[in-house]
Structures are given as structure tokens and as C-alpha cells.
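To the team - copper (II) ion complex, inputs and output below.
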Amino acid sequence: MKKIILLFITAFLISCNTSAPAPVSASTLEAVNTNGEPDGPHNSVEWKIWAYSSAAPSFIAANCSVVDVDGTVLREGTNGWTAMAANPRGMADPENGWKDPHEAMPMVGDAPAMQWAMAYMGGKTPEMDTDGWAWMLHGDMGEDNRKQKVIDEDGVIKAKADQEWIESGAHLMLLPKDPASLEGQTTDFNSGAPYVMFKGTGYDHLMIPVEGYYDYQDPK
Ligand SMILES: [Cu+2]
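Output:
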């Protein structure tokens, strides 16, 4: 009896493995390759809406608000999430806009996440109603994992020498109402597990790597 069942399972597995992948049409391929990126200049409203909102999964991106660097609302949303560019360095080439979504460092956050982000940018202590969530599927341009806003050349060199520099690919962030709630989580960004960034600064948050996290920097 056991043998018969085994044979049956084996036959089933073989039939699964031999089924050929479905053919992909050229138009589907194009959509996959460009991820829906609109044609035209990167300082157009269309491009910015695409670049910022696509930091979240499509089902959130489709209905989120989109805010430009200067605070202009590019699109009014309906789902309580807000997309914005979060690169404190600004554009390398202001005339032509962000080189790509990665340079823009867009995040798509819920309302508490926006409370956190506003406090962060203003150098204030975050005061939040609840924990917040923010997607950054385009990653960021690199951080000293120990300390926020290290963008000066010397600081970056030192962080790299100390092996504390991490240029992130796709991730989700948990921005806690109470930083102490992250106590006990690792700060090791090389393991692939969720880890704490900016521990003990008041801007402590949990980085949750997803597929593509190490696209810009290999784990050690
Ligand atoms: Cu992030």
C-alpha cells in the first residue's frame, strides 16, 4: 500500500515539474520590466506619482495620497496612506529630477508613520497615536545604522569603516509609538531578520527586509 501511494505522489510531482511555463506576451514583459513607469521627464507629476507611490505594494499605491518635496499635494488619496520622497540630500540633478525611484527614497506611510516622519524631519521627538507602518520598496541611499541623518562625507566614510553603513533595498518599517517596545530585537542588518535602526536615538524603528533588500549592498 505504501509503495502505491509513493508511486502516486512521484507521478504527481513529475507531472507538475514537466508542465511548461505559460508563454508571456511582449506587452506583459514590457509592463514587468518597467513596473509601469510612465514615459517622459522625471520632474513630471505623472512620474513623481508613480515613483513615490510605488514604494508601497500596488494595492496601497493605487489609492494613496502623494505629496511632493515642497509639500504640494500631487494626488489626493482615499486610503489613509501618504507617499513622499524622503531623501534628505535632495536630487543630484535638480534640473532633471530624481535619477530613479531609489534616489528619491520614497516612503508610503499610514497616519502615525507620518507623525513619526514629520517629527524626524523636524528633529523633534515623535508623538504618535499608535505604532506606524511605512513601506520603502525602493530602498534608501544609505544610513549609518547607529545614528540618523549621517550624510556628510566624513560621517559616511566613518560609518562604512565601522561596518555600520547600510544601503537598503526593499523593506517595510515599523515605527513604534514607544521605542522601548523594540527592546531585545537585533541591530544586525546582515542577517536578513527584522532589525533595529537608530537604536537609542529616539528614532528607533524596526526595518523589515523583503525580497530585494540586498540589491544595493551584499550582506556580510
Ligand atoms: Cu526605511
